[in-house]
Amino acid sequence: MAGRRSLGRRFGWLWGAYAVSTAGTWLAFDAFALIAVLALDAGPAQVSLLAAVGPAVGAAVSVPLGPWVEIRRKRPVMMAADLVRCVVLLSVPVAFALGRLGFGQLLLVSVAVAAADITFNAAAGAFLKDLLPRQDLLVANGRFEATTWTASMVGPPLGGAAIGLFGPVTTVVADAVSYLVSAFGIRAIGDAEKHAPRPGPAVTRAGDLLEGWRHILADPVLRPLFFNSLLVNSLIMAASPPLLILMVDDLRFAPWQYALAFAVPCTGGLLGSRLAPRLVARHGRHRVLLATGALRACWPVGLAFTGPGTPGLAWVMVVEFGLITCCGVFNPVLATHRLDRTPTGRVTRTLSAWSASGKATTAAVTALWGVLAACTTARTAIAVAGALLLVTPLLLPRRDHATGAGHEPAPVAVESDGG
Known about the structure:
mainly alpha
């Protein structure tokens, strides 16, 4: 049986760097919130502030960096973003050891990491488009997607155990080291950029800051996909805190049961990312985006009907498995389609605009849903988010437009079932 399709040594280094940093991120999942509660005696308001303000301000800080990154080689930018994340994260355990850690520092570190995340991801998208031929982009994005779901399945339980054994800052150290390893991995790729960016003006013009949004809003396919993604992702994330309250506080599930309810369904992300190239090869990108984009919106409303005991736990797993499987197909297809429809000279600004908008919208909607849950009930907040999600398929593009400026979608390379 044929083995897994090789995308080359340089992609292997990029994928390895991504895998290490993603593993570190999920190992440290909710680490700042736990540090705030366990080490700083922070209350619910401060924890919510940390979760919402850090990413939102980080998104705003990252906006001017998009045009600056566009005219520079992407590999050094990615390495710099990794090193920035490593250094600022290491400041937390150092301050903790010296007895000087404060809530303000956690907030500033959260902002810096969020801005570096957006900058890295935007540069990485442009780098990937330059590194691989178009027909390999979906396979590459599928591997990134599978890596993300694997890390999200394994990382939080291991991180929780590490915090219990070694203290609240342990996983932050691991996350910082993962970015250092990632930087070395990206350095090992070598100079793989085929097209050197054109030199631009030394000072960023106001119009350059909006170029990413201009491209998205002018494209007949990216525009509806952009608004659909903003609403779907923010509503799914906004329902997460009320669901935690419903399961752990109202229905008395143990914390390990809550963790299990979301770890096991992540296998659906692996399945979906594996199926994506085959589905696209058979049905085409547009049909796959339309079908899985609509299906992923149908599952979350079921979480409002979660009951107590083993049946309730099984119900959450089934709903989450369906949702994550659809996302596992949709996300890499969307990422590939977005790269195909974006000219090389606009990729970084487009991805920065997309990511910054997503983080800011998610932060705002999550804060709003916290107020809704407090004024009503957790179950009501989950039901309202699920009901609104049922409307989001109306934003998906109905017509199958050609990919990019006068180009048809590239042929899809399909991986074999081998090891």
